[in-house]
Amino acid sequence: MAFKSRNYPPEHGILVPIEHQGGVIRRLLATTAMRLADADYLTERLLANDARSLYSHGSKQLRHYLENLRDGNVNPEPDVRIVSNFGAAASVDGDGGLGYMACRVGMAQVLKATHEFGMGACTTSNHFHIGSAGAWTRMAVEQGFVGMAMSAHRNRPDPNQPVSHLPNSSPISIGFPAGSQPPFILDMGGAMLPYREDLIREMPNSYFKALGISTAIQVFSGVLAGINRERLKPPQTKWTSNQGAFLCAWDVKRFMDFEEYTAEMDHFIEGARQMQPFPGFDRAELPGGMEWQWERENRERGIPLGDENCEELEVLAAEVGVECGYDQFEVTRF
To answer: Most CB contacts within 10 A, which of 18, 53, 226, 290?
Structure first.
């Protein structure tokens, strides 16, 4: 059973080797003015999400990025700078580029501080979309750290709208490493409930909690990151640099023995996976568990690309003179 609110492998499509899909993404990005190293980095991030079946933040983002890069809304060659750095805390300016470039610098700073101080935190601003928030927490988890990442876009409260409209899709991700079990990777948007007056009256506490969580996300990665500064808004800037992020990590070893922690975490996760699944599902998984399994399978057999996704990429590729070469994989059709 597939819920419309999240990513799933497609029911119909073809299997594309991961190296081939990476080549398609890289050739499409080569049609922009991005630096080669930045295009390579973005290819890695989008390809990793395709491999996890997180298509919404994988290759499906390419049209959005290419159009904004080509139209001059996003700086293709940003001069990303650390503008503040004190102890375990830092702040990064993305110079109007894609948020990936700012978060690459910011997360490197966070991990460096975490190795040195046991924790690190960084805000980023003056940039466009950061991609999947879970991509940044996974970097911490891979080093045995707990990671947290949030992102927000410029969003001023409208006095003509009900406060229940304030929660939006600004994401939060929290990641915990594990041992032999899948790591826990929460990656979700802050808007969790539909605006329906009957539901608000029926379960107001749920709406109060959703308002609180989304507001915290927007304050951490928006207000605290400084995305509302006048210099970052048109006409003072020509870039669509309307987003910010908050990145942080904690070293598990500063709290308890790492082997003891992973043993306890594995015991907890394994126990949860042995519980009864949600109705309509064939197994119980904690956040990140399904993506962990899909990535392992897809890196071996190929990425399952649905017919709609393939068509979208082929149309985009034709517009910029790039070949996708998906026809050769029709023999893998499912």
So the answer is: 53
